[in-house]
Specification:
The complex is a heterotrimer. Chain A is mostly helical. Chain A has 20 helices and 2 strands. Chain A has a domain at 275-487. Helices cover 75% and strands 1% of the residues of chain A. Chain A has a two-stranded antiparallel ribbon. The longest helix of chain A has 32 residues, at 158-189. Chain B is mainly alpha-helical. Chain B has 4 helices and no strands. Chain B has helices at residues 6-29, 36-39, 58-89, 93-117. In chain B, helix 3 runs antiparallel to helix 4. Chain B is flat. Chain C is mainly α. Chain C has 3 domains: 1-82, Four Helix Bundle (Hemerythrin (Met), subunit A); 84-113; 120-169. Chain C contains 7 helices and no strands. Chain C has helices spanning 2-22, 26-46, 50-75, 87-108, 123-129, 131-140, 144-165. The longest helix of chain C has 26 residues, at 50-75. The chains are: A mainly alpha, B mainly alpha, C mainly alpha.
């Protein structure tokens, strides 16, 4: 009989995921045992769970290497993954803060919302710290299945159903690509561990000529590109973002994208450096295409949720620029950018959510006429978010873009950086158009239905602080991001 | 190696042949005297009403979905049951038991949820 | 002998796979899909993976097909009438031909481009230890974390099914 080697488990490496899943399961049971029409308390309980989860993340920072790895190298909780886990927690917390009001208004405040958000967050975390293709795949599935449900959460609304179905069909399709790519990679190298693949490639340099390995890499790239909504795999984004309940749109525009990038970066940079010339050339094209398609299509959108959907495609393109650069500056830029993107995008969606009312989403840009005069503070917050999205200093979006583009220039991708800056300049038009409506048109509506709950105010405050403070004094966060780069 | 599956193939072939041959033979050599009564779907039963292609209720779907999910849970129990002994022999009985316990407890939470939610009731 | 048997099963798999797409009555498509699933199970057996074959029959040909047939009955789909031809067919044909050329190109260099790493397991080990036992061993040691994540995934699916399909939640 062969001997059985028991795995080295090390629970510390999956502590954040464990806490979130345990809280999610507890809330699921609380939800069915406490029969109450009010579900806000579940939101507060899940916020407490998220706060608790911050402790192992802070404690794990700069942990010795032997404490980072767990489950025979299936997960690696290094600084890189911890930084991303922080981003996921921030986006989950901000989305939960704005959920209850919206769900009550639309008549779908079911308690399952919060466990699903927490489990999706746990899935993202597994993607960020997974060093085994199986863990990355299952993390992605955990995240995606929860998001399919969340996108279709408003069951009485046709648009929401459409969003859920479309997201499910295209998501399942893209998962097929990813899984097939992983299977071929496994077939070529005989291991699913990222470090194992890297070691096999180093020991057998001839494998780069193996078509099976090459096709495996390409299919994985396609699968990840679907998840980060890079053109030409972005078709699902506008419909899903438009139809999904607004707080969930905010959540899914930030977290899954960041998780997709985390796994994408780790697989390609560590397991497939042998193909770097090939994949960076491919991603160069993808980045240019994504930025351009996103920005140009966003110029023509009248619906603000669709506009932000295309803008999120464009932002995936900027982040891909940092990926192509493939150096420490670019990667630190990606992390910094994803964090600030969480604040500015969820902040913008929080305002969009307030402007709407039951049955009337008021998503047209023209609905914002005079909004800045009627609600000066909210108008100011929206302006800050839009400035940051457009990449105008002193907002955090500017610093992130600056670092990503300077990473590209350092790596010698001058043209890519120029195209990125030009795209960024074009994007100013559609962000500022909203501001033109807010401040330069006479109000049509009184906006008297608008009610800012304390939770909502807290979300906006945190988001504004998260955009402005790193924008003005970026040093601390950038240092963290630089320490988190894994090479 | 694959020779071990030869009996199964033989069985499949014999079963298929039996079905084919008996149908062909009876239609070839059997007497045929059709009448209206003999050709009705249920010779001594009720007259069929409407089409059999009725639209199903969505309730079936939920039950089927839950069935599949717990079916997949059961699939994971097979290899576990097979390797249980060798883990005990390796001195890791508590380990393998704990693993499956975690798995089952997580799904048990789902089961309690489904039960309390009333998804197993025919509403 | 084995190659001959493989060729027969592969032919059945391809024909039934095409029937899934070509049948105008969705129930017939579903039944053809069962045949495809059985052919896949046969392939698993030929690859010395009897446990996978059993799972393929139990889960796919059994449970999932029931769900598919339920959904067809739920939607009360009728036999399709009218032409199916759209531009998607043209695009699909072009992509299909390109993929075929690609596959032929890959195989034209012999099998050298398609060989991968060989692991420690071989037919002899599988015969001696047993396929299910080997799956169990790696699942409960090396792939322990993925195994536990699977239960979370099933939990999310349970919640999702109830949230989306239950009449009153």
């Amino acid at each position: 009989m062969e001997t059985l080697a028991m795995p080295a488990i090390n629970f510390a490496a999956i502590m954040p995921e464990t806490i979130l899943s345990a809280v999610a399961m507890a809330l699921l049971l609380v939800n069915v045992f406490v029969r109450s029409e009010q579900k806000a308390y579940l939101g507060y309980l899940s916020l407490i769970g998220i706060l608790v989860t911050f402790f192992p993340i802070v404690a794990g920072w700069n942990a010795p290497v032997e404490l980072q790895s767990g489950f025979n190298g299936a997960v690696l909780q290094d600084n890189f993954s911890l930084f991303f886990k922080g981003i996921f927690l921030v986006s989950a917390a901000l989305s939960i803060l704005i959920s209850d009001q919206y769900m009550q208004r639309e008549g779908c405040n079911h308690g399952e919302l919060y466990p699903l958000i927490l489990l999706a967050t746990a899935g993202m975390m597994l993607m960020a710290s997974g060093t085994d293709l199986m863990v990355i795949f299952l993390g992605l599935e955990l995240l995606s299945v929860a998001l399919y449900v969340l996108a279709g959460f408003n069951r009485d609304k046709l648009k929401s159903n459409e969003a859920g179905l479309k997201y499910f069909l295209l998501g399942a399709f893209s998962t097929g690509f990813l899984l097939y790519g992983m299977a071929l990679t496994f077939g070529a190298t005989g291991t699913t561990k990222i470090a194992g693949i890297a070691a096999y490639v180093a020991a057998n340099p001839m494998i780069t000529g193996n078509q099976m390995f090459l096709v495996g890499m390409l299919l994985m790239g396609v699968g990840f590109s679907f998840k980060i909504a890079a053109a030409p795999f972005h078709m699902w984004t506008p419909d899903v973002y438009e139809g999904a309940p607004t707080p969930m749109t905010a959540f899914m525009s930030v977290g899954p994208k960041a998780a997709g990038f985390a796994a994408f970066l780790r697989v390609f940079m560590i397991a497939l450096p042998a193909y770097k010339p090939e994949w960076s050339a491919l991603l160069w094209v993808l980045a240019v295409l994504t930025m351009t398609v996103g920005n140009i299509t966003a110029l023509f959108q009248q619906d603000i949720k669709r506009m932000l959907a295309y803008s999120s495609i464009a932002h995936a393109g900027y982040v891909l620029v940092g990926f192509v650069a493939g150096n420490a500056v670019g990667t630190a830029g990606i992390m910094f950018y994803m964090l600030s993107y969480a604040f500015m995008n969820i902040g913008a969606f929080a305002i969009i959510l307030l402007v709407g009312r039951k049955g009337e989403p008021n998503n047209n840009v023209a609905d914002y006429a005079g909004f800045g005069f009627k609600h000066p503070l909210l108008g100011l917050a929206m302006s800050i978010f839009l400035f940051s999205l457009a990449g105008i200093p002193p907002a955090a979006g500017f610093i992130g873009k600056f670092y990503i583009f300077s990473g590209a220039i350092q790596a010698g991708y001058i043209w890519l950086a120029i195209i990125g800056v030009l795209n960024s300049a074009a994007s100013v038009y559609y962000y500022l158009r909203v501001m033109v409506f807010m401040y330069m048109k006479d109000p049509v509506e009184e906006f008297d239905w608008l009610k800012v709950t304390p939770a909502h105010a807290l979300c906006l405050l945190v988001a504004v602080a998260g955009v402005l403070i790193p924008g003005i004094v970026p040093g601390y966060l950038l240092e963290l991001a630089q320490k988190a780069v894994f090479f | 190696m694959l020779g071990a599956y030869l009996p199964i193939i033989v069985l499949v072939v014999v079963a298929a042949m039996f079905g084919l041959v008996s149908v062909t033979m009876s239609s070839l050599i059997g007497p045929k005297k059709p009448s209206a009564l003999k050709l009705s779907p249920y010779e001594s039963g009720c007259e069929p009403v409407g089409t059999a292609r009725e639209r199903f209720s969505v309730k079936f779907y939920l039950i089927a979905m839950l069935f599949i999910l717990f079916d997949i849970e059961a699939v994971f129990l097979y290899p576990w049951a097979v390797v249980f002994k060798s883990f005990i022999n390796a001195g890791a009985g508590a380990f393998i038991f704990g693993e499956m316990l975690v798995f089952i407890v997580i799904l048990f939470v789902g089961y309690i949820y489904v039960w309390k939610k009333g998804a197993l009731e025919w509403e | 002998m084995e190659t001959f048997f493989f060729a027969i099963v592969a032919l059945v798999a391809i024909v039934s796979g095409m029937l899934v797409v070509k049948c105008r009555n969705p129930i017939n498509s579903a039944l053809s899909l069962i045949v495809t699933f059985f052919c896949l199970a046969t392939f698993y057996v030929m690859l010395e993976a009897p446990f996978m074959a059993a799972i393929q029959v139990i889960v796919y040909a059994g449970a999932i097909m029931v769900l598919i047939v339920f959904v067809i009955m739920l939607l009360n789909l009728r036999t399709e009438t009218g032409s199916r031809y759209t531009h998607a067919v043209t695009v699909g044909t072009i992509i299909g031909v390109l993929t075929l050329i690609e596959i032929v190109y890959f195989f034209s260099g012999g099998r050298s481009g398609l060989t991968g790493a060989t692991g420690g397991l071989n037919t002899e080990t599988i015969e001696r230890v047993g396929h299910t036992e080997l799956i169990g061993r790696s699942m409960f040691t090396d792939f322990l974390l993925p195994f536990e994540i699977t239960s979370l995934l099933l939990l999310v699916a349970i919640v999702g099914a109830v949230v989306l399909a239950k009449k009153k939640i």
